[in-house]
Prior knowledge:
Blueprint: H1 7-10, E1 14-17, H2 30-40, E2 45-48, H3 51-56, H4 74-81, E3 109-111, E4 117-122, H5 142-160
Antiparallel strand pairs: 1-2, 3-4
Amino acid sequence: MGIQTIPGYMTRGIVVNGHGQRFINEDVYPGLVGIEALYRQGMDVWVVLDEEAFEDVPEAERWGLQPPHVAETVAELEKGMGLPEGAAVGGDGAAVFTLGGLATDDEGRVRDRDGGPIAGPYAAGRASSGLHGGGYISGTSLGPGTCFGRRAGCAAAGAQQ
């Protein structure tokens, strides 16, 4: 067993364990997915995405990885992956703890998918960035949250005038 993927696949699909349950938020730091996969899922982990999501990743960024299972229906995919029948039905079992997620510029303006600023929202601290390692160490977001929170606050106040 093992997971072989790239962040571009994970953020366009869902990550499930050997029971077909989503167990983590896909936009977390990729190292956290690896830690969860190794220590809590026994490396019995899959990234599930549709053809459009696969094609959205530029070929040069796929690192030559090809899906080990391709199916027309969810039932066929479950069977090919060795998941229990009906695994795709049911609740979301994902752990929701993220460090980051919103892309921002230096002034805390939230960026759109093309990198341009979105008029209105600002973000700082754990909503926009994080330090990663073997897990979150309490307090590590205080410095960036303070620094970039101040910058975002000043920028937002300036935008109001």
